[in-house]
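Anyone opening a protein record will find just a pair of labelled lines. A complete record is shown below as an example:
=====
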Amino acid sequence: MLLRVLGSLLLIEGLFMLVPMLACLAYGEADWRAFGITAGGTALTGWMLKRLLPVASTHFGKRESYLLTGSVWVVFSFFGMIPFIISSAGMDVSDAFFEAMSGFTTTGATCRPADAPPLAHGIMMWQAMMQWLGGMGIILFTLAVIPTLNSSGGMQMFNAEVPGITHEKIMPRISQTAISLWSIYAGFTLILTILLLLGPMDLFDSVCHAFGTMSTGGFSSNSGGIAAYHSDYVTILVTVFMLLGGIDFALIFTVIMGRWERARRNEVVKWFVFTILLFWLLFDVGIWMTSASTDWRSYTIEPAFQVVSTITSTGYTYGNISTWGPLVLALTFLMMFSGGCAGSTSGGAKFDRLLYAFKRIGNEVNRCIHPNAIYSVRINGRIANPDLVAKVVLFLGIYVLLIAGGGVLLSAMGCPTVDSFFSSFACLSNTGFGASVTGYGDDFASIPDMAKWVLAALMLIGRLEIFTILVLFAPAFWRK
């Protein structure tokens, strides 16, 4: 049963590969053959898994759900890297897999040098599309288009892939939940594409930036990024939609359905918006301290854009932010760790978990003063399960250890210390900033091939939020 579902997923991936092939044909690029071959091979493999292999059991339990969720991202990246190898991009296997995993996990990191010539339109469309597919989730898309999984492990797969602390069905059936979330996601993408078209972007750039913004993957079809368009309209527009991408889509659904009361009571979003405003102000202080301002935009549009881009893990940069001073860089590290809200397309440890942790810290401080008192963590007016709070604290601890472990591994492979730890941090948080952002390190192009595989693994662990991957290495998982 697992291989049949995986076959269905590969058929879907092969179908999506036809879009960049059409982009190549539209621009008269020879890379259409690369996408045609890859799409055909991917679809054929999917058909063989779906039709030719015998099905020993239709059971799809928790074990199969975790195994599929963990493996499908690797399989998608394996087939997704092929166009990078056989097209005009001419990448080797390590670079191609890094690019594919970076795309699907919405990390947005690239191992191409900053001064490299632009890629073909078809390749850029595939990069943007990988981010868009990975933004809301490959498994979630599958649940929307394969309703039979509702009664066969659908909820387990939903829990294993969708980022967050707790998960709730916003509709009675999991497929209806998946369709609703993907509809909002696709709707916002379409609206942003149309709005960008009204500015200086053409259709191709509008689609690519809409994909990169809503997925919070940060892909840009322009080597100069958003700043290259010299448009306040584009910058403000992208800032607003990045913010939407960093908010829980289930909460957005309730607002669309007219249930405003739940949104008003949601303290996570309130603290999230407050934090953005606070960091915006602190960015202004940092810019003022270093005299890095050039005009009124240096205190308004540009820092607001950078704050939202960083905290939602989109990874767009507006110029060289290393010139904004050490305070801005320190705040950037904090936002990379935090990330957006649970249930959004953003990366990071998630803002919800930090709120749980800070409230738990407050309770422990109060318990030192009043040791006999009973304190509970309350989120949105509800008492959180103590086991859930303990899991949140454990998650944050493992998260820090993974950043440190990744940094040590990369250092052992010969990477400079700054590059090692910052790259590990950027990939686990799915932010995708190269160490060059700090002004002290280099970008991912300078990293050895073996280190790129380590970073790709960190991207996957960060996207699936640690436990979905760690459980696969537990001996108890494989016991009957």
Remarks:
- The two ends are 17 Å apart (CA to CA).
- The chain has 23 helices and two strands.
- The longest helix spans residues 386-412.
